[in-house]
Write a structure and sequence with these properties.
By secondary structure, this protein is α+β, with helices and mostly antiparallel strands. The chain has a single domain (2-144), classed as Cathepsin B, Chain A (Alpha-Beta Complex). The chain is 31% helix and 30% strand. Strand 3 and strand 4 (99-102) form a beta hairpin. It starts with a helix and ends with a strand.
């Protein structure tokens, strides 16, 4: 629904998930929407800065608590000269300990469950995709995780 109403994609939705808030609350931190629908690492850091979040950027890992920008691999990721084109094949997820939030599923999944089901599902939908790898990550200060009768959602502490 957030995608239809706000034009949100995986970046803003992953940020809302990790902050435990609604997508409409974070869209104001992504001023490039709806003119440009993808979220770069710089866009995400801008949003985190204006949210007042304390964060640290890392390369090529999935953080214990934070956000990960994944590179969907394929012919576009095999040549260093194609970096700009490869960036169009990226995907944001949120991470909290043993759980990952993926907008394609709309819920928090255990890491193994996500890798076995969610990642494989969306990789199969992309022609010539061969897999995925962490490209960049943003580690945030951990917050408590609560289970909800409406699905696995983070608390808003």
């Amino acid at each position: 629904m957030s995608a239809r109403i706000f034009g949100a994609t995986c970046g803003p939705i992953a940020l809302a998930a990790i902050l435990g808030t609604f997508t409409c609350e974070v869209m104001k931190f992504f001023p490039h929407f709806p003119e440009r629908a993808h979220t770069t690492i710089t866009d995400m850091e801008y949003a985190l800065y204006w949210c007042g979040a304390s964060y640290h950027r890392h390369d090529a890992v999935i953080p214990t608590f934070g956000l990960a920008l994944l590179q969907i691999t394929g012919p576009w990721s095999e040549h260093s000269g194609a970096a700009r084109h490869a960036y169009t094949y990226t995907h944001w997820i949120a991470t909290r300990g043993a759980y990952l939030y993926d907008v394609n599923i709309g819920d928090w999944l255990e890491r193994d469950e996500w890798a076995d089901y969610a990642a494989r599902t969306w990789i199969k939908r992309i022609p010539k995709a061969t897999g995925w790898r962490p490209l960049r990550s943003i580690a945030l200060a951990p917050q408590p995780f609560q289970f909800s009768p409406f699905g696995r959602v983070p608390s808003r502490t």
